[in-house]
Amino acid sequence: MKKWNIDKQKIKATQKIALKIFLAACVCVVCVYVFAFGFKKAKQFVLYSKTTANTVVYNVWHVETFEGGSVPRINYLKKIAREIEKQNPAVLFHIQQIDAAKLADNLEAGLPDIISFGSGVGKLVLDKLETFDTDLGVRKSLVDSGKFNGKIYALAYIASGYAMFSHGEKEESIEYGTTGFINPQNAINNAKLPVKNFGTPFETYKNFVYYHNHALLGSARDVFRIDNLNKIGRTNASITPVDSYTDLVQYIGRTRTDKIINLFCSKVLSQTEQNKLADYHLFSTLNTKLYTDGIYSDMENAIFNCKIQNVFI
Question: Which among 23, 126, 158, 254 has the fewest CB atoms less than 10 Å away?
Answer without folding.
Answer: 23
